[in-house]
Fold this sequence. Notes:
Chain A is 82% helix and 0% strand.
Amino acid sequence: MTLWAAIQIVILVLLVAGSVLAVWLKDLLASVIALGASSLLLALEFYLLQAPDVAIAEAGVGAALTTAIFVLALRKTRRKEEE
Amino acid sequence: MSVVVRTIARILVPVALLFGGYVILHGHLTPGGGFQGGAVAASAVALLLVAFGTSAVKGLKSPFAVLEDLGGVAFVVLGFLGIGYTFFFNVLAGSGGLFGAPVAPGPNPGFLNTGGTLPLMNWAVGFKVIGGLGAVVVLFALFGGGDDR
Amino acid sequence: MKRWVLLAAFLVVAGSLLLGAARMRPFGAPRLDLMDRYFNALSQGEAATNNVVTAIVFDYRGYDTLGEATVLFTAVVGVALILRRLKG
């Protein structure tokens, strides 16, 4: 196994873990942070797959703007998820 | 937000705006383009909003809306420039004037004064995306009586 | 009953995805590379740009970018309509 494939496997496992955490966490602010982290990992994966255009768009829209909009929505609503 | 977030934001907002402008300006030479650079610059606006609260960006709603409309109109007008041939024909490419320098074939680092209408379209789409996404974020912040709970 | 339907749907979707993954082509190898060779050979002369991606997005596929701009405009108008300040 080359180093390149190993890095990609690590990134993809972390990506799946971040996505599962984003669904599983009850604290919605932590869930939003997990979603942003997995989005940033997805941007890194796009960069490793030689698509820097998509990586910049994903980092700008997915990691920054979506997180900011979710945080703004959380400011105006409740932070904890209800059963 | 806390003083840590505000201090980081004071450093990071100009850097993000500068990087967005760089991505838009060099859209025809390096990876990226109007949409990517506009998204990066709009994320700077979102950082400003999250760090300093609604009052920092309250006056930016109308300028963003105007910027979005101007960008869209400029994009369509640039498309209509090539209507003598086809819609979206690149009339300025290789003409020798503005953005009209010839391009050497093969891999080369490139030259900023090339690309024909493509850099102008990059600027139009970049302003459109900054205005659109910034207006969305500001509208989200202003909803429900403005300030934070 | 509902559980069996869901299980069948899961098996169909997972099986098709695994079948596609098993028959995947090597990385970066397209099925047809006619347009790739065309863009690589001619975009520097036709669009006068070193960035082939920008040449495709703004020159060859300009209509797509126009549609994307329309989508963004529609999204902003929708957000502005939903989040407008109601009178009274």
